[in-house]
Amino acid sequence: MNTPMNPHGSLLLADDHGLVRHGLQLLLADVLPHLRVQLASSLAETVKLLQTAGRFDLVLLDLTLSDVHGLAGLRRLREDFPYVPVVILSAQDDRDTVLATLDAGAMGFISKAASPTELKDALNRVLVEHRIHLPQSVSGGMAAVPPLGADGSGGRELSELSALGLTERQIEVLGYVVQGLRNKEIARLLDRSEVVVKKHVTATLQALGAPNRTKLLVLLSQRGYRVPSMRAVAGE
Q1: Which of 226, 59, 71, 207 is nearest to 133 (CA)?
Q2: Rounded CA gap, 149 and 151, in Å?
């Protein structure tokens, strides 16, 4: 049986409870020793670190920080740092909350009730396999578990969706959508108008039978599709 690789890279953990923050740091050092972790206790500190401390591979963001409430913090990060993936960490893991975070641009959601093994598997899924991670309250335990590839990663490639009649450009746009980028950011990357991008997004939703972006993310997560690397998107 193949075991997921330990991710190498950097993670910014933002939580305003000191015991939770440092407890998670110790846990991450134990289960994912190759992962570099920095801490922030507020949205303001998170923004400052993103501006000054170099690139992070992932932000693990508490849904409610001391200086911001609810989805406002997530929306701020997606607006100011669109190429840094954000996964929400929260004790409030009901279906409506999880779907709202996806709609606001999160790439995944980890419940604070998760076991150490679940946390490790979730971060491996996001950082190594480049897959969206959702709790069972949304995935319903239906998420696909595809075989690991030769490079140690798992998941189905978005390019397989060409079998549904999607063009190469539409699949490229889909890759940006699942990373939380909005139409205006995708348009800027592709040097196309927002109208053209919106047409591609609409065609993709129709082909996959998803009524909106949020349901699209759930569907892709359940079917085990991989997300293109954000480093490639940012041109690194």
Answers
A1: 226
A2: 5
- pLDDT tens per residue across span 68-98: 988 999 999 999 998 888 999 999 989 899 9
Contacts of 116 (CB under 8 A, 6+ apart): 27, 30, 31
64 lies in the same domain as 164: no
Summarize pLDDT for 10-52 with one digit per residue, the tens. Answer: 999 999 999 999 999 998 898 888 889 999 999 999 999 999 9
Residues 194 and 125 in one domain: no
Measure the CA–CA gap between 132 and 130, rounded to whole angstroms. 7
Compute how many other C-beta atoms are within 10 angstroms of the C-beta atom of residue 214.
Answer: 17
Give the chain's mean pLDDT: 84
Band (pLDDT 50/70/90 cuts) for residue 179 is confident
Structure tokens at 25: 């740091």
Q: What angle do CA 233, 210, 159 make, to 5 degrees?
A: 40
Residues 126 and 23 in one domain: yes
Q: Which domain holds residue 193?
A: 158-233
Nearest Cα to 139, choosing from 122, 154, 152?
122
Tokens of 90: 């929260």
Q: Residue 37, exposed/middle/buried by CB under 10 A (0-12, 13-18, 19+)?
A: middle
d(C-alpha 170, C-alpha 35), whole Å: 33
